[in-house]
Design goal:
8 helices, two-stranded antiparallel sheet, 10 strands, 8-stranded parallel β-barrel, alpha/beta
Length: 272
């Protein structure tokens, strides 16, 4: 299990500088974002020169690119917005394949038209699931064509809120290309240490064999997000349970400052 960090933790739009910062903070791998190469996260196009620059920076720094962000609102109430997101996702998936990155991370979306990470009461309406699932089916056709996996993350504000939801979607899609990104802090909103541990343990068990990436974000008991190791998530238990299921993918932290990154790298590597 390699320990990594979101590349966007570090400022800059030159891949060589960003990936050097990842390395110098003590991480072996990263979840990359095209914003770290001077492009929009979801661009209209990815120039070949930019792709070569990213590849060269990864090889020079020795940092493994384990995932690329491809998030757009897959349940946006306006189908035109969803169509534009899918068009841009196609660019990200093609870029991912050219860089030999195994996974594109997605957002299963929300009926909130302003913020893809914000809850909306209509998220529980069956039409929201149907729109998201239709998008996912199209995305999987693109992924299968390019030999890339797609990662969905249970997230309280999105359509897929739980491990059970994620497994339901995988069953409905019937594609081995659909994988799970498991972030313990996104599996609950407010909990004490014992309750959080139980929720996370159940999710790890339920998704065993289907997770390709784990995230390391934390929450305080009152629901605010926290830097890994500062909140109620029992990371020692989380990592031990992942290992017990045979998970050997990357553990990637985010939701922290660049200044905090070296300390979090030491904390997580100590547990791994």
């Amino acid at each position: 299990m390699q320990v990594g960090v979101f590349a966007k933790t570090f400022a800059g739009s030159e891949p060589a500088g960003v990936l050097a910062a990842v390395r110098d903070a003590g991480f072996a791998v990263t979840q990359f974002n095209l914003a770290c190469a001077g492009l929009p996260s979801m661009p209209d196009a990815a120039p070949e020169e930019t792709i070569r620059t990213i590849d060269a920076a990864a090889k020079t720094t020795g940092i493994g690119l384990v995932a690329l962000s491809g998030t757009y609102n897959m349940a946006h109430p306006d189908s035109r917005v969803r169509n534009d997101g899918l068009r841009r996702l196609a660019v990200v998936i093609e870029t991912t394949a050219k860089l030999s990155i195994p996974l594109v991370t997605l957002c299963t979306g929300t009926r909130n038209a302003e913020d893809q990470w914000a809850h909306h009461p209509d998220n529980v309406d069956p039409s929201a699931w149907a729109d998201m699932a239709s998008e996912m089916e199209k995305a999987l056709h693109l992924a299968e064509r390019h030999g890339v996996d797609l990662g969905i993350e249970p997230e309280q504000a999105n359509i897929v809120t739980s491990a059970a939801d994620a497994m339901r979607l995988i069953a409905e899609m019937g594609s081995k290309r659909l994988r799970i990104v498991l972030d313990p802090a996104n599996l609950f909103e407010q909990a004490n240490v014992d309750k959080a541990r139980a929720i996370v343990a159940e999710a790890v068990e339920r998704t065993a064999g289907h997770a390709s990436l784990a995230h390391a974000k934390d929450r305080f008991a009152d629901g605010r997000f926290a830097t890994a190791g500062q909140g109620v998530v029992d990371f020692a238990d989380f990592i031990a349970r992942l290992k017990a299921t045979g998970f050997d993918g990357p553990l990637v932290t985010h939701g922290l400052s660049a200044e905090e990154a070296p300390g979090v790298a030491r904390f997580l590597k100590g547990l791994v």
